[in-house]
Amino acid sequence: MSVLSDQDIIRELGRGIFFHPLKLGSVKACDLCLTASEYAYAIGKKQRLTIETEPKEDKLGEEQKFFFIPARDTALVWTDESIWLSNQFRGPLYSIVDQVSNGLGHIGTRVNPCWSGVLCIALHNVSDEAVRINVRDVNQPIVYLAIEKLSSNSSINSKPDNPARLDVLSKQLNRQEIDTYLNQRQNSWMRGDTDRLKKLMLESNEYKKLKRGIHNTLLNLLGSDEQVRWTAINAIVALLAVIIAGIALFKPSPSFTPSPTKAPTPQIQANPNKTVNPTLDK
User: Fold this and answer.
1) Is 190 exposed, middle or buried (0-12, 13-18, 19+ CB in 10 A)?
2) Which sign does the torsion angle of CA 131, 98, 80, 117 carry?
3) Which of 1, 179, 15, 205 is nearest to 90 (CA)?
4) What pLDDT score does 139 carry?
5) For the chain, N or C: smaller number of CB within 10 Å?
6) How far is CA 236 from the centre of its chain?
């Protein structure tokens, strides 16, 4: 089992990993950032948490949405991003140090192979103060998702039984808003519609930027000028041709060792006129 780096993750996007919506900064050195959506439910208070807004300090005219997890309560927070993993991968989830330092409990769970949809993250506020959670803020995610490649493919190939994990609200009151939002037809990519999820990701500008970025990185290794790149490519092709020709030229041919010829054994023909006396052979 191995952990994917940022370059590995970008290469797998569109193949073994679907992730939407991608944001500037979603892909870190060796994981993906999962941010909070506007939909969070407090178990203790038995209600959806209220969304508040304030102006962004670094972006005039834009607002930052957020909510508070009440003291000594557990909030079920649905992620803004949906993810699909092929049966080659699994995804352990890790807590954010700043949030744990502010009173949130540690997270220990994972994303199974072939999961498709948003995640429901349980955040436990073990402190005596309310803890603020920003919405769709990639600089303050609620959890990190690492991607691990399995040593062999998982035998699980089916979609999840409980997409979006709405089953955790089955016995809770005041859940209608969350149910209605996640069950809307246009939000099918949030609860297991892998084809729709892939289409939205491939069409997104951030996905195209990431793919262009890794493509340009490879090209830059060959030089900054287009003519220099083509010269380098031609040189590499010529070098490979020489190497292949050299291998074919110096490859030893199989030796041929002729089989030794056995000397023929002379055959003595019996004399048909000779009478054999059995007593003489004794």
Assistant:
1) buried
2) negative
3) 1
4) 94
5) C
6) 32
Give residue 282's pLDDT.
45
Alpha-carbon separation of residue 42 from 55, 67, 78, 145 (angstroms): 25, 11, 12, 23
Check the CA dihedral 142-148-152-157 and report its sign.
positive
Place of tokens 């349980």: 122
Tokens of 75: 């909030």
Which residues of the chain fall below pLDDT 70? 214-230, 232-233, 251-282
What is the rounded end-to-end Cα distance, in angstroms, of the chain?
A: 82
Residue 280: CB atoms within 10 Å: 6
**Residue 238, pLDDT score:** 80
Helix, strand or coil, per DSSP, at residue 122? strand
* Amino acid making up residue 12: E
pLDDT tens, 70-103? 999 999 999 999 999 999 999 999 999 999 999 9
User: Which tokens belong to 46?
Assistant: 């038995």
Q: What is the pLDDT of residue 250?
A: 72
Q: What's the token pair of residue 109? A: 């769970």
For residue 118, give both structure tokens: 């948003």
